[in-house]
Every structure is written in C-alpha cells, then in structure tokens.
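Box 3.1 — From sequence to structure: L-lysine permease
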Amino acid sequence: MHNQTETGTVATSQTVSMRTLIALIIGSTVGAGIFSLPQNIGSVAGPGAMLIGWIIAGIGMLSVAFVFHVLARRKPNLDSGVYAYARVGLGDFVGFSSAWGYWLGSVIAQVGYATLFFSTLGHYVPIFSGDHPIVLAIAVSLLTWLVFAVVARGVTQAAFLTTLTTVVKILPLLCFIILVTFLGFSWDKFTLDFWATNGDIGSVFDQVRGIMVYTVWVFIGVEGASVYSRQARSRNDVSRATVIGFITVLLLLVSISSLSYGVLTQAELAALPDNSMASVLEAVVGPWGAALISAGLCLSVLGAYVSWQMLCAEPLAMMAMDGLIPRKIGAINSRGAAWMAQLISTIVIQLFIVVFFLNETTYVSMVQLATNLYLVPYLFSAIYLVLLATRGKGLTHPHAGTRFDDSGPEIPTAENRKHLIIGVVAMVYSIWLFYAADPQYVLFGAMALLPGLIPYVWTRLYRKEQVFNTFEWGVVIVLVIAAGAGAIGLINGTLSL
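Predicted structure (token representation):
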C-alpha cells in the first residue's frame, strides 16, 4: 500500500524482508572485486602481509558494520542510515556531502561493474573485448538502461532479481573453495617466501598498506541494509542482516585470497588478468574451471549491478524528501520506485560511461575513486556513534526537522562504553584508510563532491534558509582547497585518472 505524503511524494509500505536485506548486502558486496582479489592482493603483498591485512580489515570493517548495527537499534526512527546518521551527527551539509559522495561512488562503481562484465564476456565473444571500445561503451550503456527499466518497476521486482542472482553467483565461489582446498592447495607453496622478501613490493608495512584499498572495495555494500532501511519490515532486521551479511562475505574473501597463494606464487598471482580467480582455478582443474568462474563473474556483476542501481538512488530520494535538494527528485511512482532519482542516476552513469571511455580510465582507477567516496559516510557515521556515546546526541544544527529527532532509548552505561569502543575503532580505521589510499584519488573525490554545492546552495537560497553555519564553512573551505589541488594536478599533468 502507498500513502501520499505532505511533501508530494509517496510513502511506500515496508515490504523488504530480512532475507532480502541479507541478499542485498551479499549481492552488493560480492560483485566484481572478489573475482579480481587474487591478482589485486598478489600484486602488492605476500601471504604473511595478506593475513595481517585481513585481520586489520576484518576488525576495521566489522567495527564499521557494527556502527550501522548499533545505530539501527539506537536510532530506529532514522532512515537511509549512511545519510541520516551523518546529517544528525554533524549537520545538514555534512549529511548532504555523505549522501552525495555515496551516490557518486555508486554511480562510478556501476560503470566499473558493467565494464568488467563485458570485458569478461569478451574473452568468449570477441566483439565485446577491449579491442572494440565503442561497442563496449554501447553495450554498457544498453545494460544501464535495461537495469533502470527493471528497477523503475518497483522494489519488489528488483529485490527478487537481487535475491535470485545472489544465490546463483555464490555457487561458483563455493566450487572454487572446495576444488582448490581438496585438489590444488599446497602448504609448501603458501609458505614459500611467506613475507615476500625476495620481491620488490616493499616492506611488510608497505604491503599491508597497499592491500587496504582492495579490502575496502570488496567490503563495499556491507551497509546496504542500512541504506535501504526505509523499506525494511523492522530495524531489528536491518541490524541482524548487517552482521550476518558481513560474516558471510568475510569468510568468502579470506578463503579465496588465502587459497590462491597455495596454488600460485605471489609473482604469478600479480601477473594474472583482472578475472584472476578464473586463472587460479584453471591452474587446478583446467579450462573448464576458468569458464565456470567467468560465468560466475558475469552473474555476480549483473547481480551487483542491480543491487547498486537500487541503492544509489536512495540517498538522492531521501535528500529530496528532506528538502536538501529539490523535492521533485524524490518523486515515487505507483510501484514504490523512486523513479526520478533512478532516472537522474542512470543519466549520470551514462555521462560517466562517456567520460571514462574517452579517457580510457582503467577498472582499478574506478575502484580507487569510488572507494574514497564511500569512505566519507563511513567516517561520519562512526563519528556520530562516538558523539552519541560521549555526549548523547549529535551536533546542534537548525534544519534537521522532526524526522531527524535525535532522541532515543536510554542506554546503560556499560553498553554505552561498548558503543564508544566500536565507534572509535571504526573512526580510526576510516581515517587510516584515507591515509593508505593513493592521495590523488582523495583529491579527485573532493572534485567529485564539489559540484554538489550547486543544488545544495540553490535549494537553501530558494527556501530562504541559512546556507552554512560556522562548522560547515570550515568543511566547505577544506573541500574547495582539495578540489582545487586536484584540478591543478590534472591541468599540469602531475595527476591523471
């Protein structure tokens, strides 16, 4: 059932079950990254550093997952978590920047997913290979608009497709784990040059730092249930789905990356193509193994593409409903789909397809840029939990409105201390990730955030509201300086995508 709201949008009934939320997390997290993981990590780290990296990433991303788990329970009235938490915690503009960054990260990820989908297909159907970039760009565009047509039909249809593709694409991953474990894994090869001291990939610290961006990329989507909490049947479902989804994904990632070092050496893994998991299984069972994983990759990327097409419109729709951008963008059709936000997202995806293909931007570059944009709401959500645990509320700001009431249940002192620890660990981990990232992509991320000032400032002026408070002016100044540095680097050629 759908109800008309006073803002002119339509409130949808809460119809997404916990099973679908878990599928949404796994479907959006297990995308292209897991299939490229052996080569990605093998190019920068040996087995020992890999294990250390996963310990750090596991603790760090678990703390991030628990941030959303805790906030979903403490603030059940807040919808679209990655946006709402940042807004209540640090003010309207920070909330807007988080949602804008999350949206752009999702848009860029869509281009990367579709590109990898067709490039893998191109191994078997040459017309889709990188030798035909125009054909590839057209194919990516057609897929984008096809998925838009599916998603625009409503949440139920898209959620069903997400659940179906999630189940199907997990099967090749399980086959990889079982076959490599019993047929191909060699402990002697795994422990050979355990710390990669014979290569030129740097110290153990450098290796651990090098794999951080890839461990974050393959975990992106763990907050998926929180993003879509507006459609959930209960907030308890959101928090449980987040934890169950995280543990499932972590087990898959650690198993696949560890087993690969028992089949091929670090140098051999580093030399593999993007779909490196297929090459690892091929080394164990022959060409049919590569074909199996390639089919799994295509299904996985397709499922992730649908999941992210669902997710990326939510921040736009929620900001529109709350008056941070024009309200018409939040329009919802009779089937419960935020069709205007979906249409805008699809158009922007199309624009990025043109820009990236003209610039011959690599899949890895898209990963780096999208990851940095995702880190913004992760960091701000962790800061909000720290504020809740220390002062009981977020920063005071004038425009939050009744939907962003910062009240909540009374939290026992002992439980509040646990929440503080979770928030601090997630905050430190997020800051460490910005440090570990390639600095140029931090600057490019600032450049991507800057255009968001146009609709935000226009809406503020139209509503005759204060544009920025003192704290927000400081954030804007930092953003403009970083974006300016990135633009200068692109102009003089010192930076490039």
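Summary of the box: The chain has one domain: 14-438.
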